[in-house]
Amino acid sequence: MPIPRIAVIGAGVGGLAAAIDLAGSGFEVLLFERAQAPGGKVRQVIIDGRPLDAGPTVFTLRRLFDELFDDAGDSFESRVRLTPAKLLARHAWSPEERLDLFADLEQSADAIGRFAGARDARGFLRFAAQARRIFGTLERTFIRAARPSPLDLVRRVGLRQTADLWNIQPFATLWQTLGRYFGDPRLKQLFARYATYCGSSPFAAPATLMLVAHVEQAGVWYIEGGMQQLAEQLAALAIRKGATLRLGSEVTRIHVRHGRVEAVQTREGDPIAVEAVVCAADTNALATGLFGSAVRRGARPTAPAARSLSAVTWNLVARTQGFELAHHSVFFGRDYRTEFDDIFRRGRLPSSPTVYVCAQDRHDTECSAPLCERLLCLINAPAIGDEHSFDPAEIDACKIRVFEALASFGLTVQAPAESTRSTTPSDFHQMFPATGGALYGPASHGWMASFKRAGSRTIVPGLYLAGGSSHPGPGVPMAAISGRLAAASIAEDYASISRSRAAVTPGGTSMR
Fold it and tell me: Which of 296, 348, 417, 477 has CA 20 to 30 A from 19's CA?
């Protein structure tokens, strides 16, 4: 029997994970990436000859990647050099108001006690315990399983654990729920920020996103060489398993015949016959016809009002003075609600944004800054890059406001123009078409949002989905799970294929 050929569109983390599992299961895999490097949103820029992370900067849930490599007969630890972070992040509200959170839970509680008092320190420990329970309830039943309906989720959890499901507080917003644990408004602001990890507003996102706190508490890691090394090693593993990676190759159409996927066509060539396609681009690209009208029904369109956050970023090689940066530092704006109203309701850059700074040459507190260090500075922005140009004058004015705000915290950043790269929602829209610059797919607003995300299977036979805009959601670990779920769906649908090699099974696990 001929070996089925599978096309994977997009070499982001989701597409790479799908390609690894599919190739390991005996399929012929063609992996297409329109950019010149793998990674998708995991990307890098070069400034003054130095590589800087320009996308995700936080690496968590390492065990998912250990499993992915183990199932492929390889070792993640031997391919990617990791260092566990002791200091998770430094937070500031003024030059005097600073709070560090640590990998050690009791150390974080002690820091919170000194910052806000014993009551909030106890509240933090209760919050952390609840975040752990939420993650434990949802990991196998929702996150790592095929996308369920609410009723399916109840069935998976089982009658004995129905109370646990109710206790994850799906109908309350994250902001409302944080008031049960913290009296200090600064702590509410800090932990509400976890909603932005899904590109959402804490005033509309469900309290289940508390689980992000547990994910970080379970381990944050520094990757030697930056996040791009993760993408490079995933791509190398896919190639070792037999996948063919075509960089700089853009798929422009998915052909359908007799109602089933038949071929993919690239901008530079003729149609290539395939048995199935994993589309790891944003689902809205599919839904709006960028891959042809025949497959538009494979995903629901994302209305502009339902888009997640975009961002304005600046990558710099800079000299810094004053405020002692950690690897991850967060400088909070004055009015959190206004910040998200500006973005989601008024569709404009926030007047007083929270600023995230990744100092890529620093690790834990004992590390001093180099003479010139690599920085990524980021503020949240509306995903309107398809209708608003974000011209240089607007971005320059925004940059002045942002760096003046940092100076008010005591941080001086000096970088020549030639050592600075900015990226706007318009740029992100160009890199990731049909998104408006949204970096996380649809926003996770309301308790039903997670159930509305597209699953790995579509109604078009032979068409599957992966990536951060599909289930289980955005972020590097979730994208990897989505790719494994897509591969599992294909393996299940082609159950007659020989099982002589490792076979992927639903849920992202495997058996030999």
Answer: 296
Contact in structure between 455 and 147 (CB atoms under 8 Å): yes
Q: What is the pLDDT of residue 14?
A: 98
Q: Report the first-to-last Cα separation within the chain, whole angstroms.
A: 22
| Whole-number Å distance between alpha carbons of 69 and 224 | 18
DSSP H helical ranges for 316-424 = 336-340, 392-408
Q: What percent of the chain has pLDDT over 90?
A: 84
Of 288, 350, 357, 295, residue with least CA distance to 320: 357
Residues of the chain with pLDDT under 70: 1, 157-170, 365-370, 496-512
Q: Where are the domains of the chain?
A: 5-48+56-75+225-303+443-511, 104-145+159-207, 309-431
Predicted local distance difference test score (pLDDT) of residue 510: 38
The fold for domain 5-48+56-75+225-303+443-511 equals FAD/NAD(P)-binding domain (3.50.50)
Q: Residue 490, exposed/middle/buried by CB under 10 A (0-12, 13-18, 19+)? A: buried
Segment 326-380, tens digit of pLDDT: 999 999 999 999 999 999 999 999 999 999 999 999 987 555 556 789 999 999 9
Give Cα 14 to chain centroid, integer Å.
Answer: 10
Which contacts qualify for 180-185: CB closer than 8 Å, 24 or more apart?
Answer: 180/123, 181/120, 181/123, 181/124, 181/126, 181/127, 181/130, 182/116, 182/120, 182/123, 182/124, 182/127, 183/116, 183/117, 183/119, 183/120, 183/123, 184/115, 184/116, 184/117, 184/120
State if pTM tops 0.85: yes
Q: Enumerate residues 6+ apart whose C-beta is below 8 A from 272.
A: 7, 30, 263, 264, 265, 266
pLDDT number for residue 163: 57
